[in-house]
Amino acid sequence: MKIKIRLKFTCFLKILDYTYITMIRNGVLKKKMSLRTEVLIASVGSVLLVAVFLSASYIQLMRRIIDRATVNTVSQTMLVLNGQVDAIFKPYEVTVRNVAHAASSHADRNSLAKMVQKAVSSLDTMDNDVYYATTISRYQEGGFYIDGSNWNPGEDWIPSERDWWKDAVRVGDGNVAMGAPYVDAMEGTLCVTLSSPAYDENNRLIGVAAADIYLNNLSNMVREIKLSANSSINIITKDGLYVTNDDFSAIMNKNYFDTVQSKSIIKDEYLDGTVKSFTDGGFFYGVHPIKGTDWFIVTEGPVSDFSAGYFKMLTLVLLGLIVLVAAMVIVDVVASTRLSQGFKEMAAGCERFAKCDFSKKYPDYFTSEASLLSNGFNLFSQRLQDMIGTIKGSSSNLDVVSNNMKESVATVSDSMTSIRLGIENVQTQVEKQSDGFDETSSVIHDVTSSISTVNEMIDSQTRSIRESSSSVSQLVGSIEQIGHSMESMASSFESLDKEARSGMSKQAKVNERISQIEQQSQMLQEANMAIASIAEQTNLLAMNAAIEAAHAGEAGKGFAVVADEIRKLSETSSGQSKTIGEQLKNIQDSIGEIVAASQESSTAFAGVSNRIQETDGLVQSVRNSLEKQNEDSRSVISLLAEMDRTADSVRSASSKMSDGSIRILSAMDKLRTSLGDVRSSMANMSDIAQGVITSGKKLDNCVESLDINVAQLGDDVRKLSG
């Protein structure tokens, strides 16, 4: 900016000077102008021109600064507000997604209720709510509705007919939908709903999790932000409807574009998803899309809110400039008068000098130029003699200087010879260092080869992890063994039923033994229920851990991975427990058939006793299979987790070593290039040193010529002094 102003001013002065010369050439200014008048015109005119030009430039620059500062302030404020809005919605988005995921994992009603209540408690809100509704009606078996605020809806309240339900189905599995803002009928405040669907393993919709967020905090937060005294900041939808406004009746009823003053703002262009800040017609405007929503932050206000202080400063600067110009004009008038008076006297003295009258002595004037002229005239004669004496002395000094130069030239020549030898030594060291770099590069290549070997080891370890999956196959085999045992048990009971017909006389003892077997099967069923309960609690623990990891943000990502692995383990255990429960139910049904058959039996008690012992052995086999299944599951989880951590550590170390080797090789290449530059520079320095030595020889010849000229000058001075 300063360079542009200086160039414009220089061009203006050149144009003015060209105009003045043209007027003289064309005879417009034929009358002779006094020195005083010309000095006044040049000085005062220049001061006025500079003052006007600087004032105009300063005003224009100040306006640009105001516009730029206004736009930057608007952009920064909207960016801060955008981050605050995102911080309001993010915890609810994570909570809704986690509840939907838990429902997809077949969590029961009690687990989901605990999760919803904990989410509401952790969010620490008084008005907002989290809830979950199943696809099945809450009045049918398997259907229910959970509300974090314990609200009980009426019979005519059907979740699938609500907008938040439809929005969740529209966005699909794993996503969170934000509904349009609305005024809550119970609270009477503006509300927005976040919702996410839950699907089972067959991709069937089983329910929707949602959260109501009352926007009182959002409205208060926007209301507290003030760009300037007369500015306004609001949040609008993609259609331009107000989401926040000081007038509550305008929210979701009035359109922002019906009240905006700028004619250049078009809704489709203004709300195209990009950040904008500009000034128009004395007002500033800004728009910023809110992350994760179809809302926008809009702001507007008069630029004068920012420019008042600047214009006050501008007024003071202009007043100071006017005072300075006036003072400079007065100084120019006084100075030009005194200057012209001295030059008039010296102009008359020039006429006397033309007549060879050197008797006039001129006074010592105030200005340095006039004083120099007067002293020059006064001392002209005297200085002529002094100059002759000075020339004599200078001639003697030149002799001394000539001798000194000879000695200096010899010294410089010797020094440059030493420098050249030093350069050659440096070149030798550079060559040795280059050889050392080649050896280092070879070592680094060996390190890179070792890293490749490590990568092969990582691949081998990955194959080992895949082989470890055989433990999971053994678990499946154990489950199949349980099924075979159940089939054998059923076959034994059929044989027992045939032989029990002969044990009619000992019916009482048979019934007692059968009751014992039934109690044992019931204990197995209770043990299986305990396993299912543990799996359920583990799943709930995993979901709670996922919520805490989401609250932790970036720092909780590692914890979220562990929580997900725990959840998968609990789901596997729950499925296995369900299968075992079904098999135990089949056993109980078989025992019931034995009881019915034993009432009809009257013979073969010994055969019934043998079959009962076989049944007890089968039950023991079921128990052993369960224990083995549990041990195998824990072994697989521990093995896979340990090997996965080891593989990650080795892979990370290998990656760092590979990156380090690449950076070292790159640095070695750059250093080798630098050594080449040093080698080239040393060669150039050697050539320069040789050139200096050659120049020294030429300088020695010049000194000899100087001696001859000094001797000739001494002869001429002696002739001049007589």
Name the average pLDDT.
72
| Oligomeric assembly | single chain
Question: Sheet with the most strands?
Answer: 6 strands, antiparallel
Give me the Rg, rounded: 51 Å
Structural class: alpha+beta
List the uncertain runs. Answer: 1-6
Helix share, percent: over 70%
Percent strand equals 5-15%
What is the H-and-E element order? HHHEEHEEEEHEHEEEHHHHEHHH
CATH classification, class level of the domain at 463-650: Mainly Alpha
Count of helix runs:
13
CATH fold group of the domain at 463-650: Helix Hairpins
Shape, per Cα inertia axes: elongated
For the termini, the CA-CA separation is 66 Å
Number of strands: 11
The CATH architecture of the domain at 463-650: Orthogonal Bundle
Give a verbal description of the structure:
The chain has 13 helices and eleven strands. Helices cover 72% and strands 8% of the residues. Among the domains are: 2-66 and 309-346, no CATH class; 348-380, no CATH class; 463-650, Helix Hairpins (Orthogonal Bundle), CATH 1.10.287. With 722 residues, the protein is α+β, with helices and mostly antiparallel strands.
